[in-house]
Amino acid sequence: MNSWIKIRWKSFSNQPALAGRGGDIAYSDLVTLWDEAVADLEKLDLNVATVFGLIGNYSAATVVWMMVLEDAGHLIVPLLEGDEESSRKLSLAGATYLIFANSRTWNIKNQSIVVHHHSFVLELIAKKQSGVVLFSSGTSGPAKLIVQNFSDLLNVHKAKRPHRLSILVVLAFDHIGGINTLLETLSSGGLMVIPEDKSPAKIIEAIERYKVTILPASPSFLNLLALSGLVTSEKIKSLHLITYGTEPMPETLLERIRLTFPGKRLKQTFGTTETGILRTESVGSGSNFFRFSDPELQWKIINDELWLKSTTQIKGYLNTQNQNFTEDGWFRTGDRVEVDSTGNIRILGRMGDAINVGGNKLMPIEVESVILDVAGVIDCRAFGVPNALLGQVVAAEVVGSSDQNHESLRTSIRQFCRTRLPAYKVPVSINFVTSIMGDRLKKSRTN
Q1: DSSP per-residue letters across 102-130
Q2: How far apart are CA 337 and CA 343, in angstroms?
Q3: Which of 111, 128, 184, 276 could form a disulfide with 312 if both were Cys (CB 3.0 to 4.6 A apart)?
Q4: Element (H or E) spanning 353, and its range?
Q5: Which domains does the chain have, with CATH numbers?
Q6: pTM (2 decimals)?
Q7: Count of CB atoms situated within 10 Å of the CB of 172
Q8: What pLDDT sits at residue 441?
Q9: Which of 121-130, 239-248, 382-391 has the lowest mean pLDDT?
């Protein structure tokens, strides 16, 4: 074993690699743990590539085991500790061994099962390349089982120059966005900051304490930070870049975030579990349009839907039909997009989320962006509901501020929508809820 990532870690020596929950870890500590993990792997006396369930969260142990298993050509199923579906997911993936990782320690368990691998897994094994098994829930139905070529995902970062940027991780390590942040940071000598939890208070505390320079997050999470009242110029002065993705960004919400983080560069990212995270350039911090900047990527738009071909693209799903993939290799993302006159793209939402009101089609983001502009609205979600006459009508769920009377706010929302939207886009029902976050995450492209 002579992994380029291990060689690079040795060159970073005593530079800090991980900080926050689990303690401070230097790159030299990762190299030491690497050797310990290799010794434990060799004790298993494996002569064929094997599927390992890696259970835990971001820590020195999970990071090291991901790299060691990649270097040895094994397949990895990263799962969060406490995942209620872990048994089913591990069974679907055919995991023979389980590694329970905690900070700098781990335990290995042999499941002693007979596994019949899918052809996609066998192809990786034949190439002696590592795979990572992820689950994409989409917007409905059972989780889709996906095998990404982990070696390809890692090697994307091989040519990148070293840096000492501090990057905070919000997306989990069983998520393609979280894995991309991990690889981006630790392949370049950066500091990966792991917050104690994902509450706004702990996130802001971590940014200030560890002088975080890059914050990757979803629009919903950035909205929580903006509404927390905890963001001050002093606490976030180290931040240079905020990246956002995984769900559409309403223009009103983008403006709220821009005002909360004044002077910080905002960049929209794009990726799917099926294609990996792709290189993009935002038109500007105040715009939710972006362009692809990856020379290896092909893209086109068919009937308002974005289609992709990437070098880090999977071939299909292991447990369901591959109708998202065409015979000539295109992946149909399911994202409805808008293109401006210069070829920049804006994500409007999922194709299946389009609302059809008597033949007039609209996307939820068109309504959400207006409702978010109403004083007293913290968050909202628009969606279609059945209607006997029109087929569908628009409904909305709203999170209002605690000092707002619901009836007064409902009236304000309706009146404001009538001044900004055609009649068919105005919600016919408005219900107040305590949280929208869970619903947004379910609709995330990269879940």
Answers
A1: ETTEEEEEE--------HHHHHHHHHT--
A2: 11
A3: 276
A4: none
A5: 4-154 (3.40.50.12780), 354-442 (3.30.300.30)
A6: 0.85
A7: 16
A8: 46
A9: 121-130
